[in-house]
Design goal:
GO terms for molecular function: DNA binding; DNA-binding transcription factor activity. With about 300 residues, this protein is an alpha/beta fold. It has 2 domains: about 80 residues, Arc Repressor Mutant, subunit A, CATH 1.10.10.10; about 210 residues, D-Maltodextrin-Binding Protein, domain 2. The chain contains 9 helices and 11 strands. Helix 1 packs across helix 3 and helix 2 packs across helix 3.
């Protein structure tokens, strides 16, 4: 059985779509479809059933998946042996919530591609949890530890959040010294029904029952705060990227959250992905410490 055919099969099994699999493989959907048909003919088995939701693996297809994954792991291991312990190459796709993706991962990716010129880094910023079993990413950053699934989970670092506003907005309003002083202020936060993780539900910390301006994106919230639209709870590590934004009530409203690194469990056998995971985790720890240090010292 040809490994390249198995590679196409595995992409469709994970994406449950010819077009999504094709985009990941760099092929058009019709080519992917022909490759699957060829494999099915060679095996004398139907591997996928077309449904309104996409392509679902049949029992025969599901039975083939672990063998295809074993072949994939062997191919990756062979590449690692040939590449040796020098520079890392190939593609690395990292999925992350947009706060991490916007304010931390660009610096980390810049260092990675500087140290490893043969490496292509893709940052997928989405305000939701990634499905690693479908290989939406090689690794993902999460804001809470998953309670189910087969993913390999590693705590990266704690980070802090505080209530903040732009200086122009704060100067136009009376001083904020107590929680009671927040009454009448416009609040900025998440769209309630689009909060994908309970760890992101910050509004109750302020005593407010509604946000006058809301978004599912951390960076949009920060832009609104910087535009003087109101107050919001923001990551300390994002404040150095928003000139004029200042923390308020730091002694009363202070949150600590954590970043977790998630990887498919089977990838723990890959030296290449382990080295990349270690580099990403170390980079996040370094950047959180550096940026929060700038805020603490007022630099």
């Amino acid at each position: 059985m040809d490994w390249d055919d198995l590679r196409v099969f595995l992409a469709v099994a994970r994406a449950e779509s010819l077009s999504r699999a094709g985009r990941r493989l760099g092929m058009d959907a019709s080519t992917v479809g022909r490759r699957i048909a060829r494999l099915e003919t060679a095996l004398g088995r139907v591997l996928f059933a077309k449904t309104p939701q996409g392509y679902a693996a049949t029992p025969e297809g599901a039975a083939l998946i672990p063998h295809a994954e074993a072949a994939e792991a062997a191919a990756l291991a062979a590449n690692e042996v040939l590449a040796g312990q020098g520079g890392l190459t190939g593609q690395l796709r990292i999925g992350a919530p947009d706060g991490c993706a916007n304010y931390l991962l660009p610096q980390i990716a810049a260092r990675l591609i500087e140290d490893h010129p043969g490496l292509d880094v893709q940052i997928v910023a989405l305000p939701r949890v990634f499905n690693l079993s479908r290989r939406e990413a090689d690794m993902a950053i999460a804001v809470s530890r998953p309670q189910t699934g087969r993913a390999s989970v590693q705590k990266i670092a704690d980070y802090r959040l505080h209530l903040a506003g732009h200086g122009d907005y704060l100067d136009r309003h009376p001083p904020i010294r107590t929680l009671a002083d927040l009454q009448g202020h416009r609040m900025i936060g998440y769209i309630p029904d689009m909060i994908f993780d309970p760890e992101l539900d910050y509004l109750a910390e302020t005593g407010a029952d509604r946000a006058a301006l809301s978004s599912n994106s951390v960076s949009v919230q920060m832009q609104a705060i910087q535009a003087g639209a109101g107050l919001g709870i923001v990551h300390d590590f994002a404040i150095p990227f928003a000139p004029g934004v200042r923390r308020v009530l730091t002694d009363r409203i202070s949150l600590t959250r954590s970043f977790w690194l998630l990887r498919p469990a089977e990838d723990r056998r890959s030296d290449r992905l382990t080295r990349l995971a270690e580099a990403v985790a170390a980079g996040i720890r370094r950047e959180v410490q550096r940026l929060e240090g700038l805020v603490a010292t007022g630099t």
